[in-house]
Amino acid sequence: MSLRSVVAACAAGVVAAKAALDVALPEPALLHPPGAQHGGKFAAQCVKCGKCIEACPYQALHAAPLDAGAKAGTPVIDARAQACRLCADFPCVAACPTGALAPVAAREDVRMGTAVINRDLCLSYKAMRCEVCYRACPLIDEAIYINYGAREGDSIHAVFAPVVVEDKCVGCGLCVERCVVGEPECAIRIEPATQRRAREQQGAQAGGGSGQGAHEGGGPGKGAHAGDGPGKGA
Amino acid sequence: MDITRRSFVKATAVALASAAAAGTMSGMVGCSSAGSGGAASGETTKTVGVCRFCGCGCGVIVEAKGGKIVSVTGDPDNQSNKGLNCVKGYYLASVLYGADRLTTPLIRDDKSTKGTDGGLREATWDEALDLVAGKMRETWKADKSRLAFWGSGQQPIVEGYCTAKFWKAGLLSNNIDPNARLCMASAVVGFMNVFQTDEPAGCYADIDETDTFVTWGANMAEAHPMLYSRVMARMTNGKGVKHYDLTTLWTRTSANATKVLVFKPGSDLAIANAIANYLVTNDLYDHAFVADHLQFKQGTENIGNATEDTYDASEIGSKVDAVTGITFEEYAARLAPYTLEYAEELSGVPAADIKELADEFADKSRRMLSLWTMGVNQHNRGTWMNHCIYNIHLLMGRYARPGDGAFSLTGQPTACGTAREVGTFSHRLPADLLVAQEAHRRYTEAIWNLPNGYLDAIKKPGFHTIKIFRELSKGNIDFLWSAHNNWAVSLPNLTRFLGRGDKKGVMDAFICVSEVYPTLSTQYADVVLPAAMWVEREGQFGNAERRTAVFEKAAIDPPGEAKWDLWMLMEIAHRVLDGEQIGGEDAFDVLFGEWYDKQARDFKGDQREISRSVWEEYRTFSNPSLNPDAEAINKEAKLKMENKQLAPYDLYIENHGLTWPVREVDGQWLPTKWRFCDGKQEDGFDEYGVEMYGKHDLAGGVSFYKSAGAKPSVVFRPWEPPAELPDAEYPFVFCTGRLLEHWHTGSMSRRVAELDRALPEALLDMNPDDCASLGVSDGDMVRLTSRFGTCDIKVSTAGRTRPPAGLVFAPFFAEETLINLVVQDTYCPLSKEPDYKKTCVRIEKI
Predict the structure, then answer these.
(1) Annotated catalytic, B412?
(2) Which domain holds residue B17?
(3) A184 preceded by cis ω (within 30°)?
(4) Using an 8 Å Cβ cutoff, are A183 and B9 in contact?
(5) Mean pLDDT over residues A125-152, rounded?
(6) N or C: which end of chain B has fewer CB within 10 A?
(7) Which of the following is catalytic: B170, B266, B397, B411?
């Protein structure tokens, strides 16, 4: 998905939300760099100086385009083109003169967003051996694990279903960059932290749950967390 | 490429829907326009194929329309992959349509341009063929030892057969070897030493029936994706199924193992011997099986390492194959030092874990399946380690029985079918026959219609792969032809072989490369011959479970002037053999006249007819009754050639592949799933083999009728250390391998946009503690330096593999990283297969 379409979709979403609900306008759903503060702090403190954009060694950061409204000019990531590589020393944060990007202690503490798998498009859910997102994940076995399930009508193959652990996924988007599925769209996307929070708030106001449903925890077959994580028995 | 993902998905859906409607796909057989070229009309044609990539051998259905492939989907009638693929197979169609396909012959006029992007100009086929054949003939006439062919476990069977015939009978040269030397040679020598017949007794169905998996040096989760899906299905669906993973680094295969035994490089020999010792010492072994089936041996020990060029001819190097018979008691005495504690000391694996695995082997209420690949084979004691695994299984009577076996996995699509079964090795003839054995030469002469004694000229084996390239680097090879491989990326010690040092050999030699894409190998070629790829022609692969399968020519043509490899071979062969005679007759016509008309410069039939006809001759090797002279030699010399019996060609198409031996029973050809295991042929057992040459009612219900004295050999092999041990100068062990997204040197998979996106660069996986002590972080570039060479690579601590401290891992697919500049070319002294797994290196941040 191109940045333009992300922005367009977000803009449409904002308009729809504004029309439908007389609530505070949620922040536009853009993927910002590590350390971007929530609750409007980032937008308030970012002076759009571009220093973080210059500092990124992977050219992952770009200025949000003009149609991003108040967010235009703030640093954003198009994960499909170039994901955040979670540098150990966070040069983008270090370069920020205002604190809009607040210091992050470790890559595990980053909260840019959460990966969401589209199971209708994902090859792994069709029992193909793909799992590219899982092996690409910088927090493999923590942020994404594989749930091994039986394949219906086939006793000799397993389904290797990647499952995102919402509390662990930092939203770097490397899974999105690497996903082999591109049409009609990528089989995995990042829901930016702001968007997720807005959705959860809406869900809470509407008396719904925590938004868990959109992320579908379990995977196919028996839903148990099959991988006990790294180092088991090693 | 003009297939969008959307249309591809749509085509896939249509294909699956039509298959579902028909209930079966077997009705598609024969609807191809094989041999007739591209379909001009808009009709969609479907053909049966096999995946181009690994040794799993997954079946595929190929759909073509308007002269292009529109979809490749898993073959639902293939009983192994059941319509599924890994991500490489899923995007298989794209490998044909890379933007830079080679479409015209290329010639290099100025040798000084070797090793660069430029220097090749377009040429006509006549000019290229005349040049190649002229150089080959000139070298051949001057000094036969200075020419060589380097083939492949990807060369389809019919071509491999004709290449071997041309080299061995036409040129009377044994300087032909395949890249399978780099991956399977240790397994082959293991099979030959233990069973006197190559390839596993079991099959993939063992995975579905076993109770305990043991992986030895095998990252199946990445290197054998669809087979590992079967492992995980068994782990998921079966009750109490266990998996022990023995490895030098924690991999994706370790992720689901019941227990992971991470051992110090090279100490697997000690662990295996400790298990065998435990079984013998505690009287847990299968006495009846030992009495009925086994003989015991020991061999030459303290064999040093084959690092120097002089090793093979050295005093110890020339004795490495020697073995002598010993008693069971003597064998037990040799094992005795290998206590659990000693194994722990050498390996770092707790004695209790080794005991647990040994107890698992001892528990006959459970079936056990060992699986192994490159960690065992690419080992300075690779052949020995193959022995050690068989020793355990044979002591416990766990071999050749459903779910109870030892299975050597292969990495290439036809390492078994071509390199091993046809015998494109420097010491082999077709069907397990050896050039050094007189009866084997006579048998081959009978089938090849050669004068008696004609092949005595090749009774001495030729150069193995590393020898070929070492001689090339010294300027002792004048002509090299390579096909279906990418030696300039896959060979170890490329610092030497690419002439980054003494450039003489690789620059001066005349090198012909048959290829489909530009590679580093074509950068060193004097002539590049553009080849038809995969289903642009008809071909045959033989996978790891002895399954031979045909991939039909789809209704497409090769691009530009690209040609079938067999046509290139015929065109070069008749030029080189011009005026030569065999037994008073034209040499080319004796060898190939039945199939090729050299005056007309064309085959005497379409690709299907030629393939079938060549196959019929090849098949005679395993069906001696088809040739009275061969039949007489088979009987007299007790060759038991029927042990690898192959069926007529068309059966393989109709059945979407068959596992040999294939037996004719009441007009039907039935495959064998478990060689040497007594039982009904229709249930997959080796009924007719046992009936013909074996015995019923032996222990375990098996009969090893092809082994000498009908008894496989348990050969004691001690632990000896790796060729290099870490020291102050080179403190890390460097292990290399394959990852799921890319296949081998990436010359195909990296041209698939989706796969390139999925894994765009080769990374060096490191232990975080090592990173901390070196002051490097994830994403940093480092320089790897060994005694052999240097390369630069980016560090990863993400954890795809998790090396212990002191060990690092990188995949070999990326030519821009070219890790093989660093890797040692030290090889197993018995199999001559290089050890890619434990080169000592130092690491510096750059």
Answers:
(1) yes
(2) 5-97
(3) yes
(4) yes
(5) 96
(6) C
(7) B411
Cβ count near A210 (within 10 Å): 12
B255-275 pLDDT, tens digit per residue, is: 999 999 999 999 999 999 999
Task: Please indicate whether residue B411 is annotated as part of the active site.
Answer: yes
Say yes or no: B226 contacts chain A, CB-CB below 8 A: yes
Q: Of B466-480, B492-506, B593-607, B644-658, where does mean pLDDT reach its minimum?
A: B492-506
Find tokens 């691009």 and name the residue: B559
pLDDT at A138 over 70: yes
Tell whether B611 and B621 lie within a shared domain.
no
A221, part of any domain: no
pLDDT at B609 over 60: yes
Yes or no, beta carbons of A231 and B798 under 8 Å apart: no
In a domain, B525, yes or no: yes
Does residue B554 sit in the same domain as residue B425? Answer: yes
B839 found inside a domain: no
Helix orientation angle between B268-281 and B328-335, rounded to the nearest 10 degrees: 130
CA angle B218-B222-B223, nearest 5°? 60
Compute the mean pLDDT over every residue in chain A, rounded to the nearest whole number.
Answer: 81
Beta-bridged to residue A144, according to DSSP, are A140, A164
Q: Is B348 part of the contact surface with chain A (CB cutoff 8 Å)? A: no
Handedness of CA B406, B408, B409, B414 (dihedral sign): negative
Number of domains forming the structure of chain B = 5
Q: Exposed, middle or buried, B78 (CB in 10 Å: 0-12/13-18/19+)? A: buried
Q: How confident is the model over B277-323, as pLDDT tens digits?
A: 999 999 999 999 999 999 999 999 999 999 999 999 999 999 999 99
In the predicted structure, residue A229 carries a pLDDT above the cut 80 = no
Alpha carbon separation from A57 to A89, A111, A177, B228 (Å, rounded):
11, 20, 17, 38
**Each residue of B94-103: pLDDT tens digit?**
999 999 999 9
Q: Is position A10 within any domain?
A: no
Closest CA to A175 of A110, A85, A111: A85
Question: What are B220's two structure tokens?
Answer: 């199946």
Contact B87/A at CB under 8 A: yes
pTM of the model: 0.92
ipTM entry:
0.92
The whole-angstrom separation of Cα B422 and Cα B415 is 10
Q: What is the CATH number of the domain that holds A89?
A: 3.30.70.20
Is B491 inside a domain boundary? Answer: yes
Encoding tokens for residue B194? Answer: 């233990």
In this structure, is residue A233 part of a structural domain? no
Q: Do B610 and B622 fall within a single domain?
A: no
Decide if pLDDT at A155 tops 90. yes
Residues B16 and B92 in one domain: yes
* Cβ contacts of B256 on chain A, cutoff 8 Å: 148, 226-227
Chain A: residues touching B (Cβ < 8 Å): 85, 87-89, 123, 127-132, 135-141, 146, 148-151, 154-158, 160, 177-184, 221, 226-227, 230-234
For A158, nearest residue in chain B (alpha carbons): B233
B505 catalytically annotated: no
- Compute the distance between CA of residue B832 and CA of residue B837 in angstroms, rounded to an integer: 15
Q: Are A149 and A161 in contact (CB under 8 A)?
A: yes
Residues spanned by the domain of A91: 28-198
Rounded CA-CA distance A172/B218 in Å is 31
Q: Which of B86, B184, B533, B677 is catalytic?
A: B184
Report CA-CA distances (Å) from B459 to B168, B200, B427, B438, B829: 10, 27, 8, 8, 21
Kindly determine whether residue B90 and residue A136, on different chains, have CB atoms separated by under 8 Å. no
Residue B40: its pLDDT value, please?
Answer: 52
Asked whether residue A172 is domain-assigned, the answer is yes
**Residue that the structure tokens 């370069």 belong to:** A95
Q: Quick check: B638 pLDDT over 90?
A: yes
